[in-house]
Fold these 3 entries.
Entry 1:
Amino acid sequence: MKQQILCITLLAGATLAGASAETINAAGATFPGPIYQKWFENFHKAHSDVQINYQAIGSGGGIRQLTEGTVDFGASDMPMTNDQLSKVTKFKVLHFPTVLGGIVPTYNVPGAADLKFSGPTLAGIFLGNIKKWNDPALVKDNPGAKLPNEDITVVHRSDGSGTSFVFTDYLSKVSPEWKMKVGSNTSVNWPVGLGGKGNEGVAGLVKQTPNSIGYVELIYAAQNKMEYGSIKNAAGTFVKADSSSVSDAAAGAAKDIPADFRVSITNAPGKNAYPISTFTWLLIPDKIDNASKKKAIKDFLAWMMTSGQDDAAGLFYAPLPKPIVANEQKQLALIK
Amino acid sequence: MGTVVATAPPETRPRKSIAFWRDGDQISHLVTFLFAASIFFITVFLVYELWIHSAPSRAKFGFSFLTGKTWDPNIDEFGALPFIYGTVLTSFVALLISVPLGVGAAIFLSELAPPKLSNACTFLVELLAAVPSVIFGLLALFTLVPLLRQYVEPFLKRTLGFLPLFQGPAYGLSYLAAGLILAIMTFPFIISISREALLAVPREQREAALALGATKWESTWQVVVPFARLGIIGSIFLALARALGETMAVTMVIGNDTGIHTSLLSPGYTIAALIANNFTEATGDIFLSSLVELGLVLFALTMVLNAGAQLLIIATTRKGSKQP
């Protein structure tokens, strides 16, 4: 039996070694999954000796696997908390922002289009305080829009996700009541509404339920050509999410970004900044014992910050603003 | 790993004497015993793992975990009651529909239908039993749920709205939707196994009943069905187990709401759905171990319900028929 296992291991090892000299395993967030797959593929084309396997198992899973040391690096849609960092004993975790994404409110209101939402109104809807589409708060945000006298059906994510984290993080910043009653997390105790599994679950429910509202990732809404609303940002203008308004949120928040990049950029300042925006991070150990692995990972990071960024807009992600790339390049030196 | 397990016994060959080796009975006894023992070990291992990994949550909440109604990862407060309620309610609704339907269909297919029709239907039923649950879930989400929201739920509210069971807004996503899709999913199991059990009833039993002057239906209902009782009950247990543990299809149509509602039209949640939805992103220790403890609760719930159903059946059948 042992011999058989040995044989299989040897065979497997041989095939892998034949394909590439360095295999790197990573796991984590699903939201940046599409661009990571593309990056790792393109990087492999340019550096045939490096093969990066990425498993999009969710941010929580990525953090857990990195902590347990079963992957070479992780990926997450939310920065690790101090508590989580303290559990990683063998090395320190460096956060590298890779791209940005936005979360958009999507709705199905027969007869209404291009709806606008201010932060407190959105929080009021998801708290269940604003119950009807023709509520004065919504009418005030949307002068001239035809809003029906119908009950609002709220749809949220039922699975834990970085998308929910960013959305609830934004609502916590604009509504003290939300912060006190619900708070922000990958999954929260939703006061009202139906839960759909994944972006597709939320989108499906919104599409088939009249007078409903939900939230999905910008890339999902854009790829499926869904109707989505504008949000009033910290500067007071209604902004619709797209690649440039999401990038502007990072640029607006740039001077407040700490050295370790663990920061939320929701409700960022800046006239054109889209308020429900977020970085997504790669979680890299600061100490990598295997020299060739270390070189491969550092090469990839340097490539990702420069040439890799060109792939972002095509997949509806927003590229990193220049000042942030400059700071990340400094952080590269910390990998020993 | 399959190959490794299969090759394990031959490894012990050289150590055994040739005399023993010739004695096929003992080997088959040993091998089948090991296979049977593996069921026991898997169960024990499962419970052990669930028990160990749920330790932080058990220490923090104790038995209040079972009665708690709040599920809030932000304040690390977890209670299982809404999910236990949702699991039991949806399984109950499912069996309420699928048992009469399934057993009735099985009786028709085995006793009354022309053989050609019976075989064709059986083939379809077995096909249904093999459909992955995610397909049922999608089907339910895009056809059953809109039907419920537009026609069935408003109708129920108009006619039976005085009952607390049928009140509140009609979202489509509801305990009722979950119960219905579970009924559809469990019903092929009941038909398929019940039909086999009914077909296995000896011909003499039917002939004896007919000879005593019973009608075809009397012989079926009073002789054949009681004789096949154990098989039919087995099929119901299997259906119950599937209903309790079903995840994908349920989470797509139940609405995933963490409250407890009397109305069948309200959205709810089941244990399996909650675990599947939250496991990948559960970052806190207490959160994770609460999910594991929910797994333990589901395990216990399945045992309790199965035992309860067994007792119920023993109690109800004792006064009825005298067949084995």
Entry 2:
Amino acid sequence: MLRSKSIKGRLIATVVVSQALLAAGLLFAGVFYTRRRLVSTLDAGLQARAMSVAALVRYTEDASGNVYFDDSLMPRSLDPDHPDFFAVWTERSGLLTRSSNWPAGLEIPAGPDLHWDLTWAHVTYRVWRISHVPVLDREEGQSFRPQDLTIVYAAPLIQVHEQVRAAGVFIALASLALLGATFLLALYGIRRGLLPLQRLAKQAALVSAHNWELRLPTDAEETTELRPLTQSMITMLARLERSFVQQREFLGNAAHELKTPVAVLKSTLQSLLHRPRSSEEYRAGVQESLEDLGRLERLLQWMLRLARAEQWAHGALRRDIELIDITETCEEAVERIRSLAQSRHTRIHLATNGKVLFRADPEDLQLVWQNLLENAVRYSPEGGVVEVAVTGTDGGPARIIFEDHGVGIPADELPHVFERFYRGDPSRTRATGGFGLGLAIAKALVEAYGGTITAENAPSQGTRMTVELPLNGSN
Amino acid sequence: MRVLIVEDEPRLAENIARSLRESAGYAVDVAADGQEGWFLAESNTYDVVLLDLMLPQMDGMQLLTRIRQAGQLTPVLVLTARDEKESVVALLNAGADDYLTKPFDLGELLARTKALIRRGKGQPSPVLVIGDLQLNTVNRTVQRSGRTIMLTAMEYRVLEYLAHRPGAVVSKTELLEHLYDYNWEKFSNVIEVYISGLRRKLDNGSDQQLIHTVRGQGYILQD
């Protein structure tokens, strides 16, 4: 089964994911920054407290220059549960003093000033070591060299950690609330944004074979993203309607063309039976009926031919294709049409310049030429000339031109001459004898070979039909 | 009765015309295109028009519209190859009285034509009764007081026309117009011959005269 994909779902997911990423980034940056600020504040405090410890180191009253630590003035720790610890070393005698809670076994490496974190009894401490601190106490008339001190001072990081956690929780909760609000807003906005699409779908559902009009909702028309869709819907509907109407017209025309000879046949036979007739009358009636049947048969043949040609043009049928000479098929078609031409005293003049080779079924091409010739002969004046010219140039298409010197075709009818059942003036008169299918068949066949067929009025007088077949095609 | 057929398929028109002449004794004119149809419909009076839809020059629909615009009351029966609802509705709304789709049955065409003529003249029944005279338009028989009267084809046609309009004065010209087709030479004195023949046959053995002469105007068929 196909998983259905929702634009709304995707958009909301995108919004929520990007918002969540943003919130996570904010949380990380906030926590990181807060921790840095707090630690640097703590550092400053640690240094100040280390200095205050240094201030408690005093010289003895004698002039020996020895020092002692006056812990009576030691300030109390900020956090009584996890008190600070410290140690002071003198230059001369090493360790001077150590706070009572100095971790057992903690060795302080020698070296320059530095600070580090240290975990002892599950509590993390921040430790600072500051060297070369001068003893602040001064004696008057002091003759000995003043001593330098090294101080190590540590304070717990618990409070810093707690504050950082509190800031993190606050940022996370605020982000979550914002995320929720964004989700609702996105849901609303997207739902509103997709509304034109729903309206468009509702209108599109109203289109049917009986109602081709698509009423575009104004908001769908105004939405930039929907414009390509609405445009292609409109053009698609127009195309569909056109072919639908054409199909319906064809059906109507075919029905008329088929029903008329049947009506004639039926009425002839019924009228024969109406009352007793002489054998002569019966003979004439049967003769007439046979003629009507013949006409019906011919019409059916033409319609089948058209159907086959069109089917083939749509690639439904494949047939025997061989390399043939277009000029030769033209000559044969002229031969086949000769008796019709002679009955109308029309001459056919064929101009050729050698072989023009083309891959096709010769029957198809002959049928095309025959139809075009028949048309030209029919619309030629009595005793006129029909001119046929075959040219095949290297690289270009083969061009076959049929020209008569009849009355020509009114300009407004030219685009319709290849339509099925179209017959000159709307008279549909049977005087010219055709069914109005010949040119439609010719067009379908020519297009099946990738060619084109056009009708125009000849510069002098009459009609010119031009067929172009692609010689270098891959047919 | 006189019928106009407008049909471009000559063989079909010919078959219909022959059937109408032979089986109903109607005078029939045939037009092969819309223009000719309009010319005939405009310059003659027909009792019914049979109209094909697809016609050269002017199509059936246009001709129908024109006939109705000209105020002609003649019933029109349309012959069409299309039997979709929309086209039938459009036809009837344009003023057609009835339609038949091709290929049709000649018998049905004949019956519908007769029915249209009857209704066009305000006669609902196919058996026309004037006093003790009975005229059956289906099998074309005439009876007076139960006695069958044999008439010639032309006498029957005159009587049938008069019987469709009982009590109305019908002029000789009107009779000529409705009994002969376009190609016939029209002489008004032949009407007098048929009328006198009719009178002789109808009034034989009856003291009640049915066909009355209105001097200078025409004839009335009434009790």
Entry 3:
Amino acid sequence: MFPPPEDIARLAPELVWSGFGMLVMLVDPFVPRARKGAIPFLAVLGASFALLATALPARRPGPAFAGLLRVDGFSVFLHAVVGVVALLIILGTTEYLEQEHLPQGEFFALVLFATAGMGVMASAKELVTAFIGLEMSSISSYILASYRRSAPRANESAMKYFLLGSFATAFFLYGVAMVYGATGTTRLEAVQAAVAAKETSGLLLTLGLGMMLVGLAFKVSTAPFHIWTPDVYEGAPTPVTALLSSAPKAAAFALLLRILFVAFPAAVDTWFWVVWVSAALTMFVGNLAALVQTNLKRMLAYSSIAHAGYILVAVAAASAAADDAPSDLAITAVLYYLVAYALMKLGAFMMVAQLGGVGERRAEINDYAGLSERQPLAAACLTLYLLSLLGLPVTAGFLGKFYIFQAAVNARLLWLVTLMAINSVIGAYYYLRVILVMYVREPEQEWAPSPIPRGVALVLLLTAAGTIYLGLFPGAVMSFATQSALSLR
Amino acid sequence: MASSHLLSSITFLPLAGSAGLLILRREDLVWIRRFAFVTACAEFALSLLLLRGFQPGEPLYQFEELHAWIASPPIRYHLGLDGISLFLVLLTTFLTPLAMLASWQSITRRVREFFLMMLVLEAGMIGVFLALDLFLFFVFWEVMLVPMYLLIGIWGHERRVYAALKFVLYTMFGSILMLIGILWLYTRTGTFDLPTVQALLQTGQVGLSLSNELLLFAAFFLAFAIKVPLFPLHTWLPDAHTEAPTAGSVILAGVLLKMGTYGMLRFCLPLFPEAARRLAPYVAVLAILGIIYGALVAMVQPDLKRLVAYSSVSHLGFVVLGIFAFNTISIQGALYQMLSHGVSTGALFLVVGMLYDRRHTHRILEYGGLATPMPVLSALFLFLCLSSLGLPMLNGFVGEFLILLGTYQRHARWAAFAATGVILSAVYLLWAYQRVALGPVTVERNRSLPDATGRERVILFTMAAVILWMGVGSPVFTRRMEASSQNVLKQMERPQVHLAGTAGTPDLLPPTKPATVGTVPQGRPRGGHP
């Protein structure tokens, strides 16, 4: 039986991503070495088509495949986010792969598959479907993390990622099973009805929710499930780190929001404090650990843990808000922050990838000494990303933080807001230190800067421009995010 | 002149200038300096237009500009000028070209970046003084940190990295709490527009309970008190001032510190008068402690630049005292002291910088008897010391006298304690001058030091002229400040109803409880209970 055309249309982005992924893999062996440029071209084409295809279901929101998926503003928003990230990653990685002598076909195919998985996560309305999306994106990520096979560090990190990641997905699946056992369904709306009716076993349900939260906490790397993050981020090829730190996080947060606010709103008293404590803990763990890092990749990894904590503050605000309007405001804040965060983190990691040189030799903070003399534009760009991560005005990061603050103050979470404020100041220390190293310190050893290739330059330009644009004129993205937040429930 | 774009032009001209600098080649040092200097001078000329169009008796904002910026939450680009901000803007535009002139020779590394930062900094500072939207104010307040951080961090002295980080972290800690305060105020009033917030609070349409008001006051006040800096929060200042390059110290002491006291006048008093009144005695005690402590510590400094830095702690104590005496005269005095401290201390830092350019040290012991090799510079140094310690006929006297007079009318004891600061400032400044300039030349190298160059004379004589003018021509300034100073006190008046305590909607305080499911309206699948 063939699914109806609406369903196909609503799954269009995922179909394009995986279709082009397979196409890239199939074509790759037949393209002669001299024409290897065709592969990245194909991948870029696929990512662009998928972005266009995102607009297709956007015009016809509704359920697909008997309610397993649902296309609404929320899912479209996240499709756009992960789609843009995937496109930027593909644009910026071609030269990296050539420089490291890594095969292109599989890389791009895996990026596309991973993105398809994230798309499924963003629109899943049913737990097993969500799990499939999670696995699609996770398994692709494991392989991507180990893509530099010859580097021992990369292997270690990939192994760690794979083992811990499998545990986490197992936790998630186990949680799904328990929820099914307690409620007799895996559909989010049905779960919600069952929870609200209180006709279920409380303990089993709580355990199930807890296990799912553990699995997702691992994916978004919140404390205490963050241990893998620095090692994996440091060991993985830096463009992969750029991907891992932005898109899957957005998708996992989307899934988290769906599960918490669609399936378990009635149990808010149970999980509110979990989110609250986790947010506080994550911010402190991330920021305090980042203070003492000497490796920029590791520092950015810890900073991304801290940023997950900031986003959790908004999630807590969404659940604490007494009625719907402030709660929607908080979810809007989450969505805005995900965009801002993806842009600045992607830019920062791509810059690190570029400056690392062949074999990623230079990732220590001290290696950046004197960068402003050698490559003033690169230094200025990296400064912009760091200031945005810090949250200084006229950058996307500031408005993102501002909206989270606003949502949390609105929800009267004054303690949590204060903790977040303290953390912003702690964070300022390590971001600013890097900036000073670039501008003040004399380099310990001379190295000739490699010119920035076109693809990377384009990515850096787009992310930098986006960071400033979102910091000055949030209007367009904000109204999109507001509509998306409205459609979550 | 309601719809002119004068304020925007003043705010963004330096930014345009900094963009222009980027076009110049990095190696064109001469043209980079000239271009930046001309921009700063044009900026000063432009700001003089404000003086011409300003209506002295008008207490409200003038030259207002209002444009929509961000739709949700409603944030507007709202600029305006009154008697409080008028002279602070002029002070900024006056000091910036002089600080640039002082860095003509001493900045040799990354010249383009240096002047770029100076111009960006100027735009940020002016924006802070002109913004009438709380969000916009915060944006300028934070943006300005970056150029100052880099100025200290890149062009500073030995411990510059430490000092720069300390400066930013202190300021940021305060300002992020202020951001929470701003947002809190927004949730109560629904707007970021300062005049609207003021009107809502003043008419009692939005009532704050006393505990809320105290907390909000604290959130704002802490940010400003760090910036001023008020006594126990001052520890960043000596490091930042000492390690900054001369131009950085001049701007830091001349303008940045005033942002703290400006913020108190603009936000803390008018918005949260009840809290301000209740806490005024404590603030005054801290201010007086700062006056005396700063003076005593300045006295024993072996480092000339540190001495001047600590004198700022003392002088700014006077300003805070004047503000929290809630008296038209004392507030005018505080405003006047802000200006004169900006000019005098800025000029003192310039002299210290000129000495440093010659000998590359700030240690007082390394100098001595400088009046012999460099009579002109020493004479000017003495003049500046006298102005800073408050000699009648010079600028420092007017401010301190008005503050003490106004304070005395309300709290004689405060004034009595504060007055000791006047004596102490004479002690540390004159003693320092004696050790640096008088007596025989103690260090042989100093014998051959050149006297002030033409460029240095231009800078210092300009400063001296302004100092003298402010000393004898004070009505020119006070006439324009008066209406706005009175207005601050008028804005502090509230209808009696709400002073009772718990008026207004429920507190925004502790309950960090999750939504109780039962209260959620039906129709959305959020709470499931019937």
